[in-house]
Amino acid sequence: MDCRDTKKLQAAHFLIIAFFLVGSHTVAMSIQRDMPYSMVWFYLNPDEQQTRRMLQTVRDLGVMKTQALIYWWQIETLGGNYWKQMGYTERDIGTSKLKALDNYIKVSHELGMRPALRVGTFRVFKGLYHPMDTTGSVEKYCDWLRRMATRYKGKIDHWVIGDEENKRFPEWGWTGSAKDYMEKLFIPASIAIKEGDPDSRISCTAVSSAPATDWIMKVIALGLPRYGDGIAANIGYRRIEDLVELQNMMRKVKAVWPEAKFYANGVGYVEHAHLHDKRQASILAQCMFTLWDIGWNSAPYYVYAFSKTKDTHQNFGIMSLPGQDKAAVYSDAWFAYQTIAHTFYNRNKMRQPDFEIRLRQGEVCATEDGLKMRIAPPVPVFHSYIRNNNQMLLYIAYRKFREPCNGRWDILLRTKHWVRPKRIPILDYKARLAVPHHYEGDWLVIEKVKVSLEPAILILTRSGTEIIHSQDKEH
Asked: For the segment 343-372, what is each residue's pLDDT rounded down to a tens digit?
């Protein structure tokens, strides 16, 4: 090999090393985990650097999706000045708004996230899709949808058509019926979006009074599977506390439409009291875990940043957004969500343990004639999963949001193959804390696990394998 070949080889090695050093972070960020975790995103900004600062906090959260709301009248003014009367500035409307939307979609993909869009309809202007189009024509609205789908072809995770369109507005000629929604709005809107992006995934509106099972079954019967890909819902945390109606709706949908996706416009709505609000953190964690466990495809928490709703003046936020000279501020709820997102993912690649697991009341109140008398707290929610055949995850909590309770439980696993139980703190997904345990014959006994509104998450390692944190191995 002459010196020219040596120099070429050295140059090639340099390029490989440079690519690894510069690109490794990007490659790691682009690894896709299958999870429903998402965020309602109201923070479109025409400044690309500020967009990146804000969205980076979502990526740090471990979330792979966000969902923004856009209206035709926000993106195209059609020469009108109605927006001035609404209190908007030029930064919030028209070409500036379109630039903000471009930034949101571009930066999301660069960070390895998949943006979704909910498109607003006629609710703001009392039956009109755009105040400058007094005809109320759905065709012109669909022309705009087609333009948007063409512009962002292949870049949108899914589209949701409207919000709570099952409500009645008789003064606008809107009955809220499944028939009205399908024929007057969803079918023409879906056709338009598919013309712009044939591979797009589209959901019907998130219903009011979710799960509104009867209405959802009617739109399915009226052709939703032909024109769309899934259903949506707004899911408050009390729907998570009692899952009967939600799971009943899912069973009915799957029975007639096995391929249906389950999306949402917003979930959780857990009020924020202060940065270290354990109640908000615990309920949010339980909501997001539960929707992952029962098979939702997208579950954007409502809402990301601290703010008060216009109608009820409630703050559901979990953090304060960063700025050029301002660092982000995170609540305990943000860290709890982060722990769920970095711990529970790829549900379809997990399996159930093939050995017996029991729960036993962990508190002894008295011993009589050699028998231990145990306190009997309410039975908790308990789940167990095995991932990659080298990790076992245990989740245990009381899903009693309005009447929180506490107790201690022993977890008994009839196995010698799973060892070294550790607790993952709800506010620090990277930490692993030792937990007391012992053996009773063939049973591994994890002792007196504290069970409360705050989920207890335990991780075990298969005997003979190294300890691997859940975020270290994807597949």
From this structure: 999 999 999 999 999 999 987 655 555 666
